[in-house]
Each structure stands twice: as structure tokens, then as C-alpha cells.
């Protein structure tokens, strides 16, 4: 993903002209970036690669829709790709899970998390934390990723996943509780 703006501009132009060699170069250049996003949603490596491949098919088909000025090309392109990776990941969750788990309505005061003196992140590696996230139910994992990592609001999540705002909040609450429990167990 270390392309200069000029290189990226050439790559995009050649990909639009269906150059397989350039498409492969773009794929290899952004594969790691794609996996860092997609692996938070997919259950295993093979599924993550499948989602990345589906994402790149969408990217190559929709490349004509991408527009950015050359001086901000890298940032704009990375943001455009990220949106496609996230959307394709959400499609994966929808397709592979019969439906997001049903949740009970909780009042807003129940969403307040208890403070802990211990910090599990200091003890666990990034990989271990991601593995804990993968152990969450599909509904909790997806909402957690969208809210905490991607910065979506509960309203955006409800629209994207076609669930109520309160279900989004409930799934986030459950995800945080389960992760907190996992972190506490890991500290012992």
C-alpha cells in the first residue's frame, strides 16, 4: 500500500482498462489492509480471504465510480476501499448467519459499564484481542466492530444491519460485557 499518488493514479487507470497484471498489483498492494478490516468480521482465515476477494471484485467493477483529486488520492482511495471492505463484510455476516441474534430491550442506564482498575489490553496482544472479538456472537461482533473500531453511530448501524437502535445498543453492551469477562479471565 506504499504507492505514490502518481503510481496509484496509473494503477487505477490501468485497472479501469482491465489490465489483469495491474489488478493483481493493486490486490497485492492492498491485501494486508483489506485483511486487517475483514478479519474482524469473518470467523476464520479462509472466510476472510473470500470476503477480500468478493470486495476486490466489487472494487474492479466499480472503479469507474471512484473519483478523487490527485493530491489526496491515497487517502481518498483508502477510505473508498475501506467502505467496500466493511460493506462486503456486513454482507458476509448477513449471508452466513441465519439472522442476527434477537436481543431484549435494555434501558439506557444498563449500558453503563463498570470501571475496572485492571487493564487487559496491557497484558494481551492485538492478535489475542482480535481472537476474543471473534468469539463473540455474529450480532455482537458485527455491532462491536462497527461502533468501536469503525466509528459508526447506533443509528448508522441500525440502518446498515436493518435492526433497531436499541438492538444495536444491546449487542454492543453484550459484546463489551463478554469481552470484559474474557479480559478478566486472561489476567489470572
Question: Outline of this structure?
Answer:
Helix content is 69%, strand content 0%.
Layout of SSEs?
Layout: H1 5-16, H2 20-38, H3 45-62, H4 73-96, H5 120-123, H6 126-134, H7 138-149, H8 154-161, H9 165-187
Overall number of strands: 0
The run of helices and strands is HHHHHHHHH
Quickly count the helices. 9
Total domains: 2
The CATH class of the largest domain is identified as: Mainly Alpha
Note the overall shape: elongated
Mean pLDDT: 84
**In CATH terms, what is the fold-level topology of the largest domain?**
Rna Polymerase Sigma Factor, Chain: A
- Give the termini distance in whole angstroms: 39 Å
Largest sheet: none
- As a percent range, the share of helical residues equals 55-70%
Q: In terms of per-residue confidence, which ranges show pLDDT below 50 for 5 or more consecutive residues?
A: 99-123
CATH-defined superfamily of the largest domain? RNA polymerase sigma factor, region 2, helix turn helix motif
Structural class: mainly alpha
What does the radius of gyration come to?
19 Å
- Strand fraction band? under 5%
CATH architecture of the largest domain: Orthogonal Bundle
Describe this structure in words.
This protein has 188 residues and is mainly alpha-helical. The chain folds into two domains: 92 residues, Rna Polymerase Sigma Factor, Chain: A, CATH 1.10.1740.10; 80 residues, Winged helix-like DNA-binding domain superfamily/Winged helix DNA-binding domain (Arc Repressor Mutant, subunit A), CATH 1.10.10. Helix content is 69%, strand content 0%. It is built from nine helices and no strands. Helix 1 packs across helix 2, helix 2 crosses helix 3 and helix 2 crosses helix 4. About 13% of the residues have low confidence.
